[in-house]
Structure formats: structure tokens, C-alpha cells
Amino acid sequence: MQTMIELSAILGEALAAKGWQLALAESCTGGMVAQVVTAVAGSSVWFDRGFVTYSNAAKTDMLGVQADLIATYGAVSEPVAHAMAHGALQYSLAQISGAITGIAGPAGGSPDKPVGTVCFAWAIRHEVQGIHVVAETMYFQGDRTNIREQAASHLLAGLLRLSTS
């Protein structure tokens, strides 16, 4: 299994080869993915920006996520992750984005959304077709640190798959 730094380096090579830049929208990981990405030397070529949108207000203010979307589905939901990834592209120069919103625990879980529930979205900006977004929900086990690390790795792996497809 590759480390997050290794994934970031490979992702960076793939993005640089395409001339693409990356934007991130993170909630429960609090900028962890951006920290790992920027640990790779030369990442300024392919990393545009990251949005740490921990509160619902930040998701709305910084990424344009509609408040009624959050009220209807909850901040930890695929529709909100989808809107976060979409917003990250709208408010950046990037061609690809990734978003994470989840419940890392130890509190905050519910029967419908237990601790470890993490929603992801990945978006690509196409010149002709516009923005295409894919969302997914995963359920991770472990403590807060483990869940956040698994979420960050999963987002990076998804970005790598999308950037090389």
C-alpha cells in the first residue's frame, strides 16, 4: 500500500503531464490532504488551492454550497460533497478537484451516519461538457486519526484514478 506522500507524488506527475491543477475542499480532514500534497517538492506546478470548510457556513461562503442542501441532506452527504467538489472548481483555476466531508469521531455519529461515515466527491472540468462530478460514501473504522488518514488516502487514490483515466 502506498503512503499518502507517494500517492501525492504520483498524482502530481499525472497532473503535471496533463497540464492540470488540483483544488481541494476538505471538511473532516481539516486540510490534511492539502498538507500532504504540498509536502511534495514542485507541487506548486499542479496544486492551485485548498478550501478548509469545516463549518456549514464555510461550505456555503467559500464553495457556494446551498444552505438548503445542507439542511435537507446534512453536511455529511453525497449531495453536499458533490457541491463542495463543484464549488472547488468554480472558485479556483483547477481542472480537477476532490472533496471530503465526514464524521471522524469520537462523537457526532448517529444511527444513520455512524462515526467513520465519510462522503467524497471528485470533479473534472471539461472544456465542452462542463463540470462532471462523481460522489461516493465510505465507512471507515478506527479512531479519529485513523479515520481522517483513511479518508485522505481514499481521496488521493480517487484523484489519481480520475487523472489517469
Automatic annotation (TrEMBL):
<protein>
    <submittedName>
        <fullName>CinA family protein</fullName>
    </submittedName>
</protein>
<dbReference type="InterPro" id="IPR036653">
    <property type="entry name" value="CinA-like_C"/>
</dbReference>
<feature type="domain" description="CinA C-terminal">
    <location>
        <begin position="7"/>
        <end position="161"/>
    </location>
</feature>
<dbReference type="Pfam" id="PF02464">
    <property type="entry name" value="CinA"/>
</dbReference>
<dbReference type="InterPro" id="IPR008136">
    <property type="entry name" value="CinA_C"/>
</dbReference>
